[in-house]
Design brief:
The complex is a heterodimer of chains A (114) and B (114).
Chain A (H helix, E strand, L loop, with lengths): L2 E5 L2 E5 L4 E8 L3 E9 L6 E7 L4 E4 L2 E6 L4 E6 L8 E11 L2 E6 L3 E6 L1
Parallel strand pairs in A: 2-11
Antiparallel strand pairs in A: 1-3, 3-8, 4-5, 4-9, 6-7, 7-8, 9-10, 9-11
Chain B lengths: L4 E3 L2 E4 L5 E6 L6 E7 L6 E7 L2 E4 L8 E4 L6 E5 L8 E8 L8 E2 L3 E5 L1
Parallel strand pairs in B: 2-11
Antiparallel strand pairs in B: 1-3, 3-8, 4-5, 4-9, 5-6, 7-8, 9-10, 9-11
Classes of the chains: A mainly beta (114), B mainly beta (114).
Chain lengths: 114, 114
């Protein structure tokens, strides 16, 4: 069964600090890995996507890494802002025929305090 | 560009009643997804359509849940009869088919079963 595990479950940091969120997966056959940001009461919005051959991808203050050998990914947030308070969800897609089936992690809830 | 539309936004029903949710994807998006998101958890894929065909429905409780996308555009998700544990946000998303194409999420329907 395909699974995506995220840690920590929740995280509280001070504004301006950096943080790193973790994602471990057992998804086969692996196609791609995305990190989403979900604000309270809203649908998720994509931050980054990585395929098998990509090790790192940046989007502003967000940097994602992928180690396909160990099946681990991380999302690093630099110089956090209050608006970064949200749930961050790791999503790994498996190829099925000509389609791609996503498996979502439970998310890490990040709270940034002033 | 118009986003993914969902209705209703909120619904309260009693257990054993039936309910239906509607989704209108972004124009041109062939792939449509329905997710169930229980409070504090990541979204769980219920069913994925490619045009009007089902790609994956392995996590859809078929004894009570059904979904259709008859003309390959709009979709409806139905629950009959509802149980207390069905209380959740039901998210619809759409995308172009393909490995790296981003899913765009609607605002969701918050269902409360009493």
């Amino acid at each position: 069964k395909n699974q995506v595990e995220q840690s920590p479950q929740s995280l509280i940091i001070l504004e301006g600090k950096n943080c790193t969120l973790q994602c471990n997966y057992t998804v086969s056959p692996f196609s791609n890995l995305r990190w989403y940001k979900q604000d309270t009461g809203r649908g998720p919005v994509s931050l980054t996507i990585m395929t098998f051959s990509e090790n790192t991808k940046s989007n502003g203050r967000y940097t994602a890494t992928l180690d396909a050998d160990t099946k681990q990914s991380s999302l690093h947030i630099t110089a956090s802002q209050l608006s970064d308070s949200a749930s961050y969800i790791c999503v790994v897609s498996a190829r099925k025929g000509g389609s791609y089936i996503p498996t979502f992690g439970r998310g890490t809830s990040l709270i940034v305090h002033p | 560009e118009a986003g993914v539309a969902q209705s209703p936004r909120y619904k309260i029903i009693e257990k054993r009643q039936s309910v239906a949710f509607w989704c209108n994807p972004i124009s041109g998006h062939a792939t449509l997804y329905w997710y169930q998101q229980i409070l504090g958890q990541g979204p769980k894929l219920l069913i994925q359509f490619q045009n009007n065909g089902v790609v994956d429905d392995s996590q859809l409780p078929k004894d009570r849940f059904s979904a259709e996308r008859l003309k390959g555009v709009d979709s409806t998700l139905k629950i009959q009869p509802a149980k207390l544990e069905d209380s959740a946000v039901y998210l619809c998303a759409s995308s172009f088919p393909g490995q790296v194409n981003e899913q765009y999420f609607g605002p969701g329907t918050r269902l409360t079963v009493t």
